[in-house]
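Q: What residues go here?
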């Protein structure tokens, strides 16, 4: 039950969800009860009333009111005369996010408490907990289930550790034995979810917050944070932070306080809300408080609580290009905007990062996918890309005029593939290259020709889905100047 892969956990103010972490490390059932105490079961009406009074919203990104979800499930159960299923989404497939894994590995009983409260109130058929297949938190959760009795059968389902596998519809499909991708059409899990039953689906932190509120009651729960968004928020602070951490903070906390705690060098911009979130400038960051309303004032989003400062020592455009390439590869491939539009967007952003004048291509590609996808993936990806070009406008200009920003891509924005994990990169033997240009014709999404007619490409590990194109470019090079290398091996 190692927690070594999870960042340190800390808090601003008195911890709630993270209470006991410093003392116990991981809370088994006995430690959990000593720290949090017991709670009384709730009826369905009491559950809705509690969620309403504490303004509980989903903490997985969308921020949908929890009480409305419960009402929708109850109405569907009555209409169809079927029992519900409770689903906990603890998959956390987005590379920069660690808050749910922190709870899984350190305080799993709080997640189970929340799920048990909902299951007992709704007389559920089953509880299903979805986690990623990276193994983080699975042993901890399994051990916690073995220590206690749940109100109905409870099982753990693992899903591929991919960006789109954690989307609600994709999780339900995966639990049902289908492909772990979002459905091609809008399906309400409250009407037709796991095994065709009405399904209450929410994020792991959401159920943990529910368990805290059931113990404290609405008045005490609302005594922390701001009135319209009471309680605490779980945040993942990464990027350029010298002390990356999962932070529990009261809503309304100044953003700069959280970043200062983690030693974050903001640089020109900060990504808020994750890879479907938005970039904000350093100046905007100084005005933000931690809340949905606070981020909305600067056009950002709290999302699933990810705060990723880019820092002043990395090539922001190169980092952004890598992430857009990754997001394009994470497409479910079931609609045109994803299958065709996102690769076009990735190529255009990559060209901008390499100094090409492709700004209008980026805007055009983003415009073609926005609002047209079968799920939110195209919209989120275009928002990420467009806001980056706006915040990093000075870097765009520097790259376009040939000077560049003078910085290297350092992996500030985490990806599931790296040189250490076996990803390869392109390398060029300049003594052999004659500038034939065949490589750019074969793999235009990776290679372009500079103003002298020689190939230019990112000096970073390639996403696995681009390796085939890179290999074809290597094979067509008549001078044998281009090759694929293993950066980790080459470094030695």
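A:
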């Amino acid at each position: 039950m190692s927690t070594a892969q999870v960042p340190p956990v800390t808090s601003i103010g008195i911890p709630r969800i993270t209470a006991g972490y410093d003392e116990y490390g991981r809370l088994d059932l006995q430690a959990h009860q000593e720290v949090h105490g017991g709670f009384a079961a709730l009826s369905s009406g009491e559950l809705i009333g509690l969620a309403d009074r504490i303004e509980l919203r989903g903490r997985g990104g969308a921020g949908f009111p929890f009480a409305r979800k419960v009402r929708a499930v109850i109405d569907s159960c009555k209409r169809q005369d079927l029992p519900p299923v409770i689903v906990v989404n603890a998959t956390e497939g987005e590379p920069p996010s660690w808050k749910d894994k922190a709870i899984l590995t350190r305080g799993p009983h709080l997640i189970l408490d929340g799920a048990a409260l909902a299951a007992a109130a709704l007389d559920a058929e089953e509880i299903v907990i979805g986690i990623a297949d990276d193994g983080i938190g699975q042993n901890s959760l399994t051990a916690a289930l073995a220590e206690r009795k749940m109100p109905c059968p409870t099982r753990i389902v693992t899903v591929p550790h991919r960006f789109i596998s954690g989307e609600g519809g994709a999780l339900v499909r995966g639990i049902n034995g289908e492909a772990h991708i979002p459905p091609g059409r809008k399906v309400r899990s409250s009407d037709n979810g796991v095994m065709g039953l009405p399904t209450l689906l929410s994020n792991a932190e959401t159920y943990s917050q529910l368990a805290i509120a059931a113990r404290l009651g609405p008045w005490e729960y609302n005594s922390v944070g701001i009135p319209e968004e009471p309680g605490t928020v779980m945040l993942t602070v990464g990027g350029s932070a010298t002390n990356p951490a999962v932070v529990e903070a009261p809503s309304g906390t100044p953003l700069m306080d959280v970043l200062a705690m983690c030693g974050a060098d903001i640089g020109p911009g900060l990504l808020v809300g994750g890879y479907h979130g938005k970039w904000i400038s350093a100046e905007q960051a100084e005005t933000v408080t931690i809340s949905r309303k606070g981020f909305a004032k600067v056009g950002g989003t709290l999302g699933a609580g990810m705060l990723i400062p880019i820092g002043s020592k990395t090539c922001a455009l190169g980092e952004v290009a890598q992430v857009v390439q990754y997001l394009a590869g994470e497409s479910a491939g079931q609609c045109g905007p994803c299958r065709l539009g996102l690769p076009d967007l990735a190529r255009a952003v990559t060209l901008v990062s390499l100094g090409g004048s492709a700004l209008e291509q980026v805007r055009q590609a983003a415009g073609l996918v926005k609002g047209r996808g079968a799920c939110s993936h195209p919209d989120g990806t275009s928002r990420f890309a467009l806001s980056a070009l706006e915040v990093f406008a000075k870097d765009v200009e520097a790259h376009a005029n040939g000077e560049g920003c003078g910085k290297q891509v350092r992996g500030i924005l985490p990806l599931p593939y790296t040189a250490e994990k076996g990803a390869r990169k392109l390398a060029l033997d300049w003594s052999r290259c004659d500038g034939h240009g065949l490589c750019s014709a074969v793999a235009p999404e990776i290679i372009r020709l500079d103003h002298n007619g020689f190939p230019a490409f990112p000096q970073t590990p390639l996403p696995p889905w681009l390796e085939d194109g890179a290999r074809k470019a290597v094979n067509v090079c008549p001078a044998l100047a281009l090759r694929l290398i293993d950066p980790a091996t080459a470094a030695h």
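A: Context that may help when evaluating the design: Residues 7 and 245 are 5 Å apart (CA to CA). Residues 204-221 form the longest helix (18 residues).
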